[in-house]
Amino acid sequence: MTAATTRDAVFPAGRQALYDINGYSAAIRSGDLLFVSGQVGSREDGSPEPDFPAQVQLAFDNLTAVLAAAGAGLDDIVDVTTFHTDPENQFDTVMAAKARAFPSAPYPNWTAVGVNWLAGFDFEIKVIARIPQTT
User: Which of 128, 131, 105 is nearest to 36 (CA)?
Assistant: First the structure.
């Protein structure tokens, strides 16, 4: 691969084993873009947080850790896709977490998808972010 097409794996501190078990990267940096794999509200041992509001917040926290490992933050996100096992009943909780993460415009693009399985989780968030240029 040339330098322009090289993809670099990005992992947050302390969570590499969870990705190794399942054979994927937390994120891939390609040029100035960061493609973040779906983040869920997993505890340190990889198990789902049972309390839904806490699970959603933990998913956002895990997302923030992946972004930080690449030198980015929530403000660098340009596209969001979320997955919900019960969108109608989860909507208020997710919107509250979204408002905390993105409190003001311009907001990132957002697509929400209802699903029937998330490997024991009830919420997942994946994003594309632009990595800030360092000077």
Answer: 128
